[in-house]
UniProtKB/TrEMBL annotation:
Protein name: Zinc-dependent alcohol dehydrogenase family protein
Keywords recorded for this protein, A-Z: NADP, Oxidoreductase
InterPro entries, A to Z: ADH-like_C, ADH-like_N, ER
Annotated Enoyl reductase (ER) domain residues: 11-327
SMART domains: PKS_ER (SM00829)
Keyword Flavoprotein: no
Amino acid sequence: MNRVVRFHETGGPEVLHLEEVPLPEPGPGEVLIRTRALGLNRAESMFRLGQYGIDPVFPSGIGYEAAGVVEALGDGVSGLRVGDAVSLVPSFAMTDYAVHGEAVLAPAHAVVTHPERLSFEEAASVWMQFMTAYGGLVDLAGVRPGDTVLISAASSSVGLAAIQVAHKAGARAVALTRTSAKRQRLLDAGADEVIATAEEDVPARVRELTDGQGARVIFDAVGGTALADLVTAAAPDAHLVLYGLLDRAPAPLNVGEVLFKHLTIRGFELFEITTDDRRRAEAVAFVTDGLAKGELTPTVDRTFPLEDIAEAHRYLEAGGQVGKIVVTVPTS
């Protein structure tokens, strides 16, 4: 038998349970992976709560990210071998493939062999955040040397990845965080500057840091009431990429600033990149190159054993982490 994480109704972390199900067999184009580590994301929390873009079908599995070892290959799968250490690029719906469990199926296009220097915990912390950061900053905003990039929710796994992606592209990374409590940890993580949004005047600090020009790229996971300050902090012709909705309050918008600054405000989902074969390949190549050169390094905040999956979700929702929350899977 095989233990997987499932839930039978939407709700808080307490609805998650480990359940025994038969070991699956890979069909055509599928890979069976014996997992060693599972990456936890805000997307899983929203899915569990019934607040995601797709609704769970009960009993529902959960999970976008995992790392482990290939156990079996379905017909037509090439480029992989049994025993390969692999991790998963989120490029499928959780209603089709849910990968938080001991042995899971994944579509072959989502399975990537990662650099040997990465632990399984680190490998489970790569693809959601670095692909999201690449997609928003490089693919959409075209970040370039000399740019100032504002990164909200900077202590999240995606925020930390965005700092590194901005640097790889030659830009300056300015981390936005609610209070100064995480300032030093963000500086240690590579941020060039840190702005505490609840304690400082964001537009004024950005003007100070950019000689009055503003930020050409803004990468925002928050939305809500703080969006007004980001628009004011933007440079003429800036790109403001919205990839999250941590604040669901209505967002005030100074249309005059958008109009006369010629701003581009763009909503972005990771799956725009990962479900397009060409863009996914380009993104994987960028991230793999960065991992190999040490320019991109995942940050693991804390690990939980599989038996404590509900507690891991509680910790995620408390919002105190700096980096990725990982669930470890026993090998026996």
